[in-house]
Amino acid sequence: MPETMLDGHRIHVDAEGFLTDPAEWDEELADVLAAQIGLTLTDAHWKALHFLRADFAQQGETATLRRVSTLGAIPVKELFALFPGKPAKKMAYVAGLPKPHGCV
């Protein structure tokens, strides 16, 4: 698995740049990953990211957009506003988690 340095963080990534070891993630790295895709994280972003990480720890896989919306109590429209274009994929990337099943 490829290894890369990102703003002083040595991380293992897959071919698409998603972290392959969620334990390498921290909130400082999340800010760096977000900046890589043009986002500045706000409290609303953190709510989604913290839900995603906690859910991953319990379920063992990255939550779908519907799951984040339903169980995380964040409307889908808001998720699209926070993570424009492909919110599930972008949330997983910034949260240091594998791409959700079904994402292209």
Automatic annotation (TrEMBL):
GO terms for cellular component: cytoplasm. Its main location: cytoplasm. The active site is at 103 (cysteine persulfide intermediate). The keyword Cytoplasm applies. InterPro entries: DsrC-like_C, DsrC-like_dom_sf, DsrC-like_N, DsrC/TusE. Belongs to the DsrC/TusE family. One of its GO terms (molecular function) is sulfur carrier activity. SUPFAM superfamilies: DsrC, the gamma subunit of dissimilatory sulfite reductase (SSF69721). It holds the Pfam family DsrC. Keywords: Cytoplasm, Transferase. This is Sulfurtransferase TusE. One of its GO terms (biological process) is tRNA wobble position uridine thiolation. It is found in: Cytoplasm. It comes from the Bacteria. Gene3D superfamilies: 3.30.1420.10, DsrC-like protein, C-terminal domain.
